[in-house]
């Protein structure tokens, strides 16, 4: 591999009984991604993104080994060179100087013809701080009858880090029945790895832990922390697992004992389905990396399609990546905040700033002069009339269910109010992202929903509604919502990054110039829009 | 899955379980050899027990198949049923029945099943990532439903779509059992 120096090393899970995977030597023939002419027409491909990363065609899933190396950002991703469903998986590769515009590279890794390999699966990359002499042996961590690791549930290693004890450490997710586990492996030389006797972390009834991630965050600062640096009391740890059972990414915040190599979530930080998610919509197999150039933690996530496979075959592609997000610990210490990288704002043009306005109950306000199918919009609401808020039934603990039952067309008192995106001229199609405010036990509760039920006249899509509670106090704070809109994706950020929700939609009418963007209030009480800014987004070189 | 969970809980507390019960459980859930009992246990985890049992029994290799083998049989059953459906769609399309549009859609649905979902499921089963095998068969069930819906109640394909849907709906939980039985396999090796 000409691109990587000897200092980079990749981890792959070893499939039981199928041998060791090796990086290809440069004399092998590489496949290249084919050119884009047939996909240039916007009308024949109304749902391809303008600024979200995706290959020119075919299937993509997990992001792998994201990193910055010698000033260049690298992204690898699971890719099928032959079709629009999962299969024939290889590691494809792109590079960027700004995390916005990407240059495709040759396929990084694909199965060698010499070994009986079944594919290049998800893994991580570690950059060594020192010179490293290539070993003729590849490191192996494998499930065997001796270590009793479940062979079909042992995958996705994290990036390795160097502990204070001078040994390298890496975490791999697995399961025993319905208990999710994270095994920790240690090594002195990066070749021979020994499984630690105690698990780094585990939790009952969570199922298989895929794509385990484990990293430090600063307390009281949005500046990122590198796992390799000396750490003090101003650092907490985040443990994240992608749960195979529910296809969601969950995380906890807690403490890490670097001597015993044990992670303990904080009181109230819960693993599994009742815990916090990176994103309450479509966002999976996420991977973070420390951006040493700008001292920040960046998160990538795979957003799969909500269309049927027959539609995916017709359009010839499946899978996009989310816009990279910066992640840091909220000042409460109880949750992470996520926000799109600042660099994405370089695509903003033709800003539209609407003046402060009271939005009466039952009204809609169009945002003019914006390319509504490819936009970035930020809106902030101020709410009063709190005594009129609907009561929150104590049994309403599932926000997703609550949003499904109370969609945008269900009138409330304080809400629903928010945005209508990908709206067709006659409102036959629209996707709504909105808030509702309820009176809870001793405080007001904010519910955020992304309602796709009217998103498309095509009946073949998955139009599941998404929901999450947002930890903001609407009495003392304004409610903010930002949505990144890009042809078939809406990535929404509520409460300045406290609750994130990503949805895929495939309108038939509301495409390109025929898409409209509105603010709306379908509650009985008025709300005040204190800020509404929208930008048309330029096209990025996504591949 | 509840039965399996109880069984694996037994295996995980090996030191506390009398040896005789372990032996009995081992012979019952042997990884290598299947019997009518394994077919029954597998089919109990699916929504169409009778269809599952008759489908598996109709394939002579099922008596020697392990859990992965049974899942493969089911996936190939979906393939066989989908092939029949597509054949019928093509025949009907040649007659001028005024059903050109929905039949054309259905041809796309079944093309997706045969050229994408089934190969995905087979590759995933062969390479040991049941998750994508489940995605494949779940979409197959979905495509059959989408085809049926295109006729708005006047479908000439109802029986065929139902068979494809139900066979796919059996295959998904059968695939999920591969996770559970692999654990039992490793636990049982420890005792031998």
TrEMBL record, chain A:
The keyword Signal applies. Keywords: Glycosidase, Hydrolase, Signal. SMART domains: Glyco_32 (SM00640). It comes from the Eukaryota. Residues 131-340 form the Glycosyl hydrolase family 32 N-terminal domain. CDD domains: GH32_Fruct1-like. Coiled coil: none annotated. Gene3D superfamilies: Exo-inulinase, domain 1, Glycosyl hydrolase domain, family 43. Residues 361-536 form the Glycosyl hydrolase family 32 C-terminal domain. Residues 1-17 form the signal peptide. Belongs to the glycosyl hydrolase 32 family. PANTHER family: BETA-FRUCTOFURANOSIDASE, INSOLUBLE ISOENZYME CWINV1-RELATED. This is Uncharacterized protein.
Automatic annotation (TrEMBL), chain B:
SMART domains: PMEI. Keywords: Disulfide bond, Membrane, Signal, Transmembrane, Transmembrane helix. The keyword Membrane applies. NCBIfam families: PME_inhib. Residues 1-34 form the signal peptide. This is Pectinesterase inhibitor domain-containing protein. Residues 34-174 form the Pectinesterase inhibitor domain. Belongs to the PMEI family. InterPro entries: C/VIF1 (IPR034087), Invertase/methylesterase_inhib (IPR035513), PCW_Enzyme_Inhibitor (IPR052421), Pectinesterase_inhib_dom (IPR006501). The chain crosses the membrane at residues 170-191. Gene3D superfamilies: Invertase/pectin methylesterase inhibitor family protein. The keyword Hydrolase does not apply.
């Amino acid at each position: 591999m000409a691109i990587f120096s000897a200092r980079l090393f990749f981890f792959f899970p070893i499939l039981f009984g199928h041998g060791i995977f090796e990086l290809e030597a440069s004399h092998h023939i590489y496949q290249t991604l084919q050119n884009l002419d047939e996909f240039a027409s916007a009308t024949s491909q109304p749902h391809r993104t303008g600024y979200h990363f995706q290959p020119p065609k075919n299937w993509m899933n997990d992001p792998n080994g994201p990193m910055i190396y010698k000033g260049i950002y690298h992204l690898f991703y699971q890719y099928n060179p032959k079709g629009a469903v999962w299969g024939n998986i290889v590691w494809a590769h792109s590079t960027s100087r700004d995390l916005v515009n990407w240059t495709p590279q040759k396929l990084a890794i694909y199965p060698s013809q010499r070994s009986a390999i079944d594919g290049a699966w998800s893994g991580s990359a570690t950059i060594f701080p020192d010179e490293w002499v290539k070993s003729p042996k590849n490191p192996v961590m494998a499930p065997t009858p001796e270590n009793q690791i479940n062979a079909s549930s042992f995958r996705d290693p994290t990036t390795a880090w160097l502990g204070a004890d001078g040994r390298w450490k890496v975490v791999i997710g697995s399961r025993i029945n319905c208990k999710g586990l994270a095994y920790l492996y240690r090594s002195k030389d990066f070749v021979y790895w020994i499984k630690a006797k105690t698990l780094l972390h585990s939790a009952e009834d969570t199922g298989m832990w895929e794509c385990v991630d484990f990293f430090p965050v600063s307390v009281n600062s949005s500046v990122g922390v590198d796992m390799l640096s000396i750490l003090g009391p101003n650092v907490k740890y985040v443990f994240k697992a992608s749960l195979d059972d529910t296809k969601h990414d969950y995380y906890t915040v807690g403490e890490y004992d670097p001597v015993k190599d044990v992670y303990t979530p904080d009181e109230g930080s819960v693993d599994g389905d009742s815990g916090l998610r990176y994103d309450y919509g479509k966002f999976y197999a996420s991977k973070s990396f420390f951006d040493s150039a700008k001292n920040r933690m960046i998160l990538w996530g795979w957003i799969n399609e909500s269309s049927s496979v027959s539609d995916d075959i017709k359009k010839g592609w499946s899978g996009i990546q989310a816009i990279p997000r910066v992640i840091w610990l909220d000042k409460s210490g109880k949750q992470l905040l996520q926000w799109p990288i600042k660099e994405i704002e370089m695509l903003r043009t033709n800003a539209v700033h609407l003046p402060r306005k009271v939005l009466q109950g039952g009204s809609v306000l169009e945002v003019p002069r914006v390319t509504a199918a490819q936009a970035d919009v930020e809106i902030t609401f101020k709410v009063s009339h709190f005594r009129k808020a609907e009561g929150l039934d104590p049994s309403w603990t599932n926000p997703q269910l609550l949003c499904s039952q109370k969609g945008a067309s269900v009138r409330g008192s304080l809400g629903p109010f928010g945005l209508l995106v990908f709206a067709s001229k006659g409102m036959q199609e629209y996707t709504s992202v909105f808030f509702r405010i309820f009176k809870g036990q001793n405080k007001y509760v904010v519910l955020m929903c992304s309602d796709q039920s009217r998103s498309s006249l095509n009946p073949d899509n998955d139009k599941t509604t998404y929901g999450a509670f947002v930890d903001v106090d609407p009495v003392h704070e304004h409610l903010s919502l930002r949505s990144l809109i890009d042809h078939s994706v809406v990535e929404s950020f509520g409460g300045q990054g406290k609750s994130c929700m990503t949805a895929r939609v495939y309108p038939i009418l509301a495409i390109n110039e025929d898409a409209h963007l509105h603010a709306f209030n379908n509650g009985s009480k008025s709300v005040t829009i204190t800020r509404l800014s929208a930008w048309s987004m330029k096209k990025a070189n996504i591949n | 899955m509840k039965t399996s969970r109880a069984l694996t809980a037994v295996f995980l507390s090996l030191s506390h379980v009398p040896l005789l019960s372990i032996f009995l459980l081992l012979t019952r859930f042997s990884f290598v050899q299947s019997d009518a009992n394994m077919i029954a246990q597998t089919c109990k985890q699916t929504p169409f027990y009778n269809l599952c049992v008759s489908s598996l029994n109709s394939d002579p290799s099922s008596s020697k198949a392990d859990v992965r083998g049974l899942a493969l049989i089911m996936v190939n059953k979906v393939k066989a049923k989908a092939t029949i459906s597509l054949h019928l769609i093509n025949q009907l399309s040649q007659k001028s029945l005024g059903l050109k549009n929905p039949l054309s859609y259905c041809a796309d649905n079944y093309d997706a099943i045969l050229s994408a979902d089934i190969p995905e499921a087979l590759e995933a089963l062969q390479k040991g990532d049941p998750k994508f095998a489940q995605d494949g068969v779940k979409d197959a069930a979905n495509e059959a439903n989408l085809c049926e819906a295109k006729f708005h109640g006047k479908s000439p394909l109802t029986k065929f779509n139902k068979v494809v849907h139900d066979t796919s709906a059996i295959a998904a939980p059968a695939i999920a059992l591969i996770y559970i039985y692999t654990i039992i396999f490793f636990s049982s090796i420890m005792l031998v």
